[in-house]
Amino acid sequence: MTHVSCNISTMKVVEELRYLVLAIQREGNRLLAAELRPLGITPSQAEVLRVLRDHGPLTLNALGGLLVCETGNSPSRLVDRLVAQGLVKRGIDKVDRRYLTLSLTTQGRALHRRIVTAENRLHRTMHDLVAGQALDETITTLRTLADAFPAGAALARRRDPELATQEN
After folding, report:
1. Vertex 11, ends 9 and 13: CA angle to 5°?
2. Which of 1, 21, 58, 146 qualifies as a cystine partner to 62, CB 3.0-4.6 A?
3. If we measure between CA atoms, which residue out of 149, 163, 154 comes closest to residue 21?
4. Reduced to 3 states, what is the DSSP secondary structure of residue 88?
């Protein structure tokens, strides 16, 4: 990371940006949790199901490399809960039998569809809040910041399947 000398004014703007991102993340997660509560699942568990649906089957390590919500926690605890709920199954990797792979069960795929519906409700609400705003520059700025950190790298791997296979 290169460090550029910043004046106090610039530092205050960057600090405000950090707090704005935190506020939006907290509220977005709170709203998503409320949408998912009737489904009996947390946002972190929903993310695991989403990643497995979009990129699975995956090893535990590969799954961990694609998660954003739970960067500080071990994905194995999340997976254990989802296996116990009958939403995720463990299987033998087809390429290397020494590894276990994770994939969605039929019940997990059905719940995934309901999760997408809940997420879409949240996204419509957020869209209505920013309607008419030019978001491309904002997204570019946020990606630049996020890409400097592991969670941003996980998002980049999810956007680009080539990166996901190179990492794992």
Report:
1. 75
2. 58
3. 149
4. strand
- 3-class DSSP state of 91: strand
Q: Are 88 and 49 in contact (CB under 8 A)?
A: yes
Contacts of 152 (CB under 8 A, 6+ apart): 143, 145, 146
- Residue 104: is its pLDDT beyond 80? yes
Per domain, the residue ranges of the chain are 8-167
Average pLDDT, the chain: 87
| Cα 148 from chain centroid (whole Å) | 16
pTM of the model: 0.82
Query: What CATH architecture applies to the domain 8-167?
Result: Orthogonal Bundle (1.10)
Token duo for residue 115: 């999760």
Tokens of 20: 């704005």
